[in-house]
Amino acid sequence: MMKKACTIAGALLLMASLVSPVIAAGTPSPGAPDQQNYSISGFLSYHQLAEKLKKIERSSQGQVRLEVAGHSNQGREIYKATVGTGEKVVFITSQIHGNEPTGTEALVSILQYLGSSNSAEAKKIRKEITLVAMPMMNPDAAFLDRRGNDMTWDEVVSAFPELADAKPAWNYYTTPRQGDNYAERPGFDVNRDYNPDLNYTPKAADFPGGSSKPGWFITPEAQTVRDVYQSLRDEFGQVDVYIDLHHQGPFYYVEGTDDVVTLSLSGRFVADPNSPAGAKYAEYAENYHYDFSRQLNLAAYHALQSMGSSPFGNISFYDQKIDLPGTALGAFALNGSGTVLFEVRGQTQSMGQKKKGQLVKAVETGLYGILNGVATGSVYDLDPEEYDDIPITSYEPGI
């Protein structure tokens, strides 16, 4: 059964967690909902994460390999953890927005399990999959407990002198928002700094850009993720699966009801290159595998639904009709990866420790659904059309 589209207002607000709201090209400081500004106390800090990952590596007896993939703009190490030796590559990133930490906790738990367990499940995943995880790919934002990184436009121009006469990127934060300090310490929404052309170098003519246009790889954080993705393609031929872990606001609903959504999934981030709307991506048409993305989302959804009277609440999907080539999800989908967005319910700290644990477990459960589906091959047997039967996320209750 095909779902009706979300309301226009709902669609725009749903994008706020994955991206900043749609702002006219040239606007230097796009806003973001106040609901995205919440404390991350109670979650792993940057230093705690580093120590935890090192401990997991030591105790794994070689199963988990930890590397420094790159450095943030302020010089903090960006870690990459690898487990498994299979030919199928699954690449997962978390905390591209520093105040969205639930996925980081889930990834640490998964790395610990896969690095130490001798269960049949863990052995199968390690044998069939090479899992590469970047649990905190924007550590400067995590340190500042905010969405954007810590970088000025002057630093961008210093790195790319050809941009001296360009207008600042549209996703450059320079004004105060509740709980943030962008006026004193500007930064970029890194989730708009990707480009389907993985070898792209910044050009002044492409600035300030816009929400539905490609990014530029001007931030060290996006460059690091791009470099890891390219290195995996060089080694394995392709990155089969890319998953990005985010938060959404606290009050999204199952369309047509007053039921609050715990976790949203999505597999579509750019216009289909094989359609008239996606003709501008024609060079990527042979690599684009939307059906596989839908199968991956279904694997996560089925795993969560299999809990029966789920402790996680309602699971839905974003019926996205948006074109976001500046996100990692959009850029990597065009480069041949099956893609999945996780948007867990936000403001976990206000809900107490029990709710935090449930939300982290929801992310873990969905990720294991994908990992097991890819490892066993069962994901390829799913009917991608069933993806459109998953309840839709709506911003307005009862609509």
Notable characteristics:
Aminopeptidase; two-stranded antiparallel sheet; disordered N terminus; alpha/beta
* Unreliable residue runs: 1-38
Mean pLDDT: 87
Task: Describe the largest sheet.
Answer: 8 strands, mixed
Shape: globular
SSE sequence, one letter per element: HHEEEHHEHHEEHEEEHEHEHE
Q: Could you tell me the radius of gyration in angstroms?
A: 20 Å
Strand order of the largest sheet: 1-2-4-3-7-11-9-10
The portion of residues assigned to helices is 25-40%
Beta percentage is 15-25%
Protein name: M14 family zinc carboxypeptidase
Active site: 343 (proton donor/acceptor)
Family: Belongs to the peptidase M14 family.
Signal peptide: 1-24
Written description of the protein model:
The strands form three sheets. Strands 1-2-4-3-7-11-9-10 form an eight-stranded mixed sheet, with helices on both faces. Strands 5-6 form a two-stranded antiparallel ribbon. Helices cover 32% and strands 16% of the residues. The two termini are 18 Å apart. α3 packs across α10 and α4 packs across α10. The protein has a single domain, classed as Zn peptidases (Aminopeptidase). It is an alpha/beta fold and 399 residues long. The protein has helices at 8-18, 46-59, 102-116, 120-128, 139-144, 153-159, 220-236, 290-305, 328-334, 352-376; strands at 64-71, 77-83, 88-94, 129-134, 172-173, 187-188, 241-248, 253-254, 261-266, 314-317, 338-345, 393-394.
Chain-wise SSE layout:
Layout lengths: L7 H11 L27 H14 L4 E8 L5 E7 L4 E7 L7 H15 L3 H9 E6 L4 H6 L8 H7 L12 E2 L13 E2 L31 H17 L4 E8 L4 E2 L6 E6 L23 H16 L8 E4 L10 H7 L3 E8 L6 H25 L16 E2 L5
Parallel strand pairs: 3-4, 3-7, 7-11, 9-10
Antiparallel strand pairs: 1-2, 2-4, 5-6, 8-12, 9-11
Helix pairs in contact: 2-3, 3-10, 4-10, 8-10
